[in-house]
């Protein structure tokens, strides 16, 4: 979404001013515990309002036009003809379980075409509305930019369906030059992959149409522009169109590395690459050391480099309560020298996040689940949103009652952010209270999944419309359940941690005295190691005089 991270060394400003930095994690169907294709997305952008979008299925008359607006700025770019048939889209999944996600890599700024008509966001949702398979989505998306021009900077797309998943990378051809150069690589079923704001496709097979698709001029255009002069077999899309600098490695590729090393210990060796000490890039995909579940991949989206050399939970920047979050911007200067903060997968600027679960052994209406949340993955409970859902839960909707500058107690984006922003300053002290509610809700949704889906399949066999209604109602009820539980959590937190003390809790209830008033709170103060740092900084200033 609005995400780009050329921020450690510099902030790249392409067509518009935006701060972008998303993450996609990918699991092939033979690499998952239940045969699902899994795709994650974190839509990261400072100031962005998160919501669940919906495009209803429809049949459209000849001559009908649709407006194209840039996803980042809402700028009107023009109109294109509507397709005769469009499919139901809820969030980033459609009724055929096709899922599309992205991360922005920017690339060479001279290749942005401000005259192009199709931006990357419109490309996603047009692709979802017009495609029944991942391969069909690739064709729809590449045909659109070929015909109408590509407005955005370099982009990595994840394009998936219940049977396969692809990474497609695309960049424009410069001002006034219609179209784009692109390459799409199929991720093997038994592998995992990821991308995080840096182009990750290097060499690719030129004669394997089952597993690799590309624009006919992807290499010749690079030669024409002076980006490449070697043999075709040695051509690297990433090197030609998005040469890596320190920021691409440390702020972007590092997130991929953290995911890879969790599931294949051999990937630890690429720490030197992340630090800019070696040149060999990480592979586009790897085989995990075990199969991954939806729960595994949800937890992977909560990563802050814990247990690695890049762990940010224990240095001075973590504050007294070991917070894994850092304020923006990612860079800062001290005495004329520039420094940076690590950028993990989970970050406070997430507007929404999802884990898409796509299954070929179930009817489409039942097999596709968008596990969805508003705010970053670490601080939310993922809610099941079935791909056939044709009504947005009120608490997930955008509208007049809530937006990026309008708070509403009825809106989950704001309720979730209210909770997380209470926790950030005293993270280590408060996070377990969130974890308890998060775990209980997610466990409840997973425990109910088989029963819900068995009933949905039975309904589908009798009347598909009944299954759609049932799963839509279940989606709406699940969202509302999460919303109400999160409001209760926020109310609990403000009471328990009011005025920087901690009120005692027993059996889930606040303790009271025999006379009925609240029990005296605990006053934990700062942890000892932080107090020691304070004394190192202040010396004898706060020392109590000896008697």
Alpha plus pi helix count: 12
Radius of gyration: 24 Å
**Oligomeric assembly:** single chain
Mean pLDDT: 94
Q: Helicity range of the residues?
A: 25-40%
CATH class of the largest domain: Alpha Beta
Largest sheet: 7 strands, antiparallel
Strand content: 15-25%
CATH topology of the largest domain: the name is Penicillin V Acylase, Chain A
Structure class: alpha+beta
Instruction: Tell me the number of strands.
Output: 23
Global shape: globular
Q: Could you list the spans in which at least 5 consecutive residues all have pLDDT below 50?
A: 1-19
Terminal Cα span: 62 Å
Strand order of the largest sheet: 16-14-1-2-19-20-21
The CATH architecture of the largest domain = 4-Layer Sandwich
Total of domains: 3
């Amino acid at each position: 979404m609005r995400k780009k991270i050329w921020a450690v060394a510099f902030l790249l400003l392409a067509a518009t001013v935006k701060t972008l930095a998303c993450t996609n994690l990918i699991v092939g169907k033979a690499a998952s515990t239940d045969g699902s294709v899994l795709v994650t997305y974190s839509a990261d952008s400072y100031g962005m309002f998160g919501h669940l979008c919906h495009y209803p299925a429809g049949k459209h008359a000849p001559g009908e036009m649709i407006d194209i607006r840039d996803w980042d700025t809402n700028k009107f770019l023009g109109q294109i003809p509507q397709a005769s048939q469009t499919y139901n889209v809820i969030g980033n999944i459609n009724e055929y379980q096709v899922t599309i996600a992205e991360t922005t890599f920017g690339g060479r700024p001279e290749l942005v075409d401000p005259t192009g008509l199709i931006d990357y966001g419109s490309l996603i949702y047009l692709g979802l509305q017009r495609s029944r398979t991942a391969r069909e989505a690739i064709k729809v998306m590449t045909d659109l930019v070929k015909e109408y021009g590509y407005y955005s900077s370099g982009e990595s797309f994840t394009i998936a369906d219940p049977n396969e998943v692809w990474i497609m990378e695309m960049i424009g051809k410069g001002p006034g030059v219609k179209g784009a150069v692109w390459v799409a690589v199929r991720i093997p079923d038994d592998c995992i992959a990821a991308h995080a704001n840096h182009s990750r496709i290097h060499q690719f097979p030129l004669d394997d149409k089952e597993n690799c698709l590309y624009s006919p001029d992807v290499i010749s255009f690079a030669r024409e522009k002076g980006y490449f002069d070697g043999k075709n077999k040695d051509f690297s899309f990433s090197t030609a169109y998005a040469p890596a600098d320190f920021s691409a490695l440390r702020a972007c590729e590092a997130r991929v590395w953290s995911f890879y090393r969790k599931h294949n210990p051999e990937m630890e060796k690429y720490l030197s690459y992340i630090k800019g000490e070696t040149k060999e890039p990480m592979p586009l995909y790897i085989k995990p050391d075990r199969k991954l579940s939806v729960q595994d991949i949800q937890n992977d989206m909560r990563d802050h480099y814990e247990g690695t050399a890049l762990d940010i939970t224990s240095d001075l920047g973590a504050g007294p309560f070991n917070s894994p979050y850092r304020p923006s911007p990612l860079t800062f200067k001290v005495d004329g020298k520039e420094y940076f903060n690590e950028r993990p997968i989970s970050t406070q600027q997430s507007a929404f996040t999802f884990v898409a679960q796509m299954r070929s052994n179930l009817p489409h209406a039942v097999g596709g689940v968008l596990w969805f949340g508003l705010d970053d993955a670490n601080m939310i409970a993922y809610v099941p949103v079935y791909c056939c859902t044709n009504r947005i839960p009120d608490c997930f909707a955008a509208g007049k009652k809530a937006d990026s500058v309008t708070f509403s107690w009825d809106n989950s984006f704001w309720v979730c952010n209210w909770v997380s922003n209470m926790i950030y300053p005293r993270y280590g002290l408060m996070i377990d209270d969130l974890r308890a509610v998060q775990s209980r809700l997610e466990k409840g949704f997973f425990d109910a999944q088989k029963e819900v889906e068995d009933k949905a399949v039975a309904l589908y066999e009798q009347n598909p419309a009944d299954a759609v209604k049932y799963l839509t109602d279940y989606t709406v009820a699940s969202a509302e359940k999460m919303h109400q539980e999160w409001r209760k959590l926020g109310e609990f937190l403000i009471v328990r941690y009011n005025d920087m003390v901690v009120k005692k809790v027993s059996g889930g209830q606040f303790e009271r005295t025999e006379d009925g008033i609240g029990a005296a709170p605990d006053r934990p103060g700062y942890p000892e190691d932080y107090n020691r740092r304070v004394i190192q900084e202040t010396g004898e200033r706060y020392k109590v005089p000896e008697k």
